[in-house]
Amino acid sequence: MTKTKPYNIETELVINKSSDQYNASVPPLYQLATFKQESLSNMGEYDYTRSGNPTRTHLQNHMAKIMKAHQTFAVTSGMGCLDVILRLLQPGDEVIAGDDLYGGTHRLLTYLNNKGDLKVHHHDTTNTELIKLKITPAIKMIFLESPTNPLIKVCDVKAITDHAHAVNPDCIVVFDNTMMTPILMTPLDLGVDIQYESATKYLNGHHDIMAGIIGTRDPKLAERVYFVINSTGCGLSPFDSWLLSRGLRTLAVRVERQQKNCVKIAEFLQNAGFKVRYAGLPSHPQYKLHQSQCKGAGAVLSFETGSIKMSEKIVESTDIFGIAVSFGCVNSLISMPCKMSHASIDSKTREEREFPEDLIRLCIGIENIDDLIYDLTRALLKSGAVKVNEKDELYNAVAVQPKL
Ligand SMILES: *Cc1c(COP(=O)(O)O)cnc(C)c1O
C-alpha cells in the first residue's frame, strides 16, 4: 500500500481539491467579470473572465482528470466546441465526417462546406476499410461519433485514428463523446487528438444549462484551442461552470442507473418483436466492436414500429416520457428524430442514409423501471402497435407487426 494509485472515476467525480482561502468544501462561485491588478506591473493570475475565471478553471481541472486529458476547456455549448475546433483549420481544408452525425454538427459542417470555407466528405464510418481508403494526406481533420444517434452506428475509433495518423501525423482526429460520457468511454486512450462533449446532456444531467467541454493531451493543440476561446469569448460563464461542477458529482450514479433501465427497455421492446437499435443488445451488428471500446451502451435507443402514424401516436401517448429533443437528463424522453432533432437534415439525405421515418428515440432516465415499462406499454397499446395477452401484465406486450 505504499504506492499511490490513481482513484477511479466515481471517486474523482466527487472529490473536491480546492485551494480556497476558507477551505470551501465545494468550488466557490466567482460571479464577476474583472479582477483588480496588484499593481501596474503585476497582473495577477486572473484579469478578465473571458480569459479566465477561478470557477471555470476549477471545472476544467476537474474535467481533465475525468476525461484523462492534459487540459480541458469549458465553453457555452456542444456546438460551441465544434465551432472552436473548426477554427483550427485553414480555408479550403478537406475533412472527413461520419454520415450519421448529430444534426447540429451536420448543419454547421454543411454551412461551411456550402460557403466554400471547407470541403466536407461524408462517409459511412462503420465501414473501416472504406474510411481508410478515403483518408489521404489532404485530409486535415476527421469527425467521429460512436455510437451515433438515433441510428446507433458504431465505428472502430482506434483503427481509423491509427490509420489517419499513419497517413498524416498532423491529421487531427476529433471525437464527439456526448453519448458515452467519460464513464463509459475514454476516446483519448484510443488515440484521438481532441475529444469534446455536449455537457448539456449527461455531464450536467439536469437540463438546466447549456455547456460543452473540449479535451486534449497535446499541449500545442490546447494552446491553439485556448487562443480561439479567448479570442471569440465563448468560455463558459462562472455560474454555468459552477452548476456544471455540481451536476458532475452524480454523473456516475446517473449513467449507471440510466443504462440499467435502458437495457431492460431494449430487451422489452426486442422481446415484443420490434426492431431495436441499441449497442448493448447482442443483436446489434457491431455489438462486439462496441464492447471492445466502451464499458457499456449508454441510455439512448431507437426502435421502428413500421408505421409513421403509429409512431406519432405512441410519442403523443406517453405520460412519464416527455416529448423533447436532447438526452442525458434524469428524466426519460421520447422523440421522433425525423420530425425533431434531425429535421435539419433534408428528407432526401435522410432517405439516402436509410433513416427510417417511423423511428422513435427513447432517452432513458433514472425513474422506476416498472413505471417506465408500464407507461410505454400503455402508449403502445393505445397506438395499436401491440396487444397484451393478459391485461395489466407488465413485460408482456407483443408487436402487431413484428419487424425482427
Ligand atoms: C446535443 C449534442 C451536441 C450539441 O451540443 P449542444 O450543447 O446542444 O450545443 C453535439 N453532439 C451530440 C452527439 C449531441 O447530442
From TrEMBL:
GO terms for cellular component: peroxisome. GO terms for molecular function: cysteine-S-conjugate beta-lyase activity; pyridoxal phosphate binding. Pathway: Amino-acid biosynthesis; L-methionine biosynthesis via de novo pathway; L-homocysteine from L-cystathionine: step 1/1. It is an enzyme of class 4 (lyase). The modification N6-(pyridoxal phosphate)lysine is found at residue 201. Its cofactor is pyridoxal 5'-phosphate. Gene3D superfamilies: Aspartate Aminotransferase, domain 1, Type I PLP-dependent aspartate aminotransferase-like (Major domain). CDD domains: CGS_like. Its EC number is 4.4.1.13. GO terms for biological process: 'de novo' L-methionine biosynthetic process; transsulfuration. It comes from the Eukaryota. Keywords: Amino-acid biosynthesis, Lyase, Methionine biosynthesis, Pyridoxal phosphate. The keyword Lyase applies. PROSITE patterns: CYS_MET_METAB_PP. It catalyses: an S-substituted L-cysteine + H2O = a thiol + pyruvate + NH4(+); L,L-cystathionine + H2O = L-homocysteine + pyruvate + NH4(+). SUPFAM superfamilies: PLP-dependent transferases. Belongs to the trans-sulfuration enzymes family. NCBIfam families: cysta_beta_ly_E. This is Cystathionine beta-lyase. It comes from Candidozyma pseudohaemuli.
